[in-house]
Amino acid sequence: MSDTDILDRLSAHRLVPVVVLDDAAHADPLAAALVDGGLPVAEVTFRTAAAAESIRAMSARGDVLVGAGTVLTVHQVDEAVAAGARFVVSPGTSRAVVERCQEHGVLALPGAVTATEVMAALELGLSTVKFFPAGTSGGAAAVAALAAPFGGVGFVPTGGIGPGNLAEYLALGSVRAVGGSWMVPRDRVNAGDLDGIRELAAAAVALVSG
Ligand code: 3PG
To answer: Which residues are in coiled coils (predicted)?
Structure first.
């Protein structure tokens, strides 16, 4: 699947649940809960040692669009891609990370919150960036201001977003999707509260559709 296909799928769902998995055994049931909630997407962050195995378990299902998050190094890109990640998210823009993604033919979504950072991403051939951390970087107003000189650039705001302010971001034409952990709270994942996660995912989908 091409980068455009993956971006189209993320744009169609409009939401990217950002997952921190402490135990890869939770990956498959979590994926099932997201699918049941109508949100078959997950960004599995490399903040825990369980990331690669979790990506592998989720990807093997075949019914979830799985990406890697918090990817800081080329080694993590290799691990993520080997595990089946279809997109790679980073908190900032690293040329080495983006170029490794391009070598693998996997979509890179690096973080950018300034005009200089967006230009760096454009120079690397990208059209869409993660706007992170969204809340403390000026929120939806900052995304709108940044989008003005960069027609055609897409943003995936993430960080400090939840049901209360999701609509502000989704109202912007430049916003392809919104990421966040509110749909998959780490404590609920660890507690095996799959019903709760399914309900949070379904509620987020309802807000997006609403
Ligand atoms: C991320 O890694 O993208 C963020 O930590 C998610 O931010 P949130 O927890 O504020 O949603």
So the answer is: none
| DSSP alpha helix (H) spans, the chain | 3-13, 27-36, 51-61, 74-83, 95-104, 115-123, 139-147, 166-170, 186-191, 194-209
pTM above 0.80, yes or no: yes
Whether 158 lines ligand 1, by a CB cut-off of 6 Å, is yes
- How many folded domains does the chain comprise? 1
- Give per-residue pLDDT as tens, 107-130: 999 999 999 999 999 999 999 999
- Of the residues 15, 19, 181, which should be mutated to test ligand 1's pocket, given the most ligand atoms within 8 Å of the CB? 181
ipTM (interface pTM): 0.92
SS3 140: helix
| Dihedral sign computed on CA atoms, order 53, 183, 9, 206 | positive
Domain extent for 90: 3-209
CATH number at residue 28: 3.20.20.70
State which amino acid sits at residue 190: N
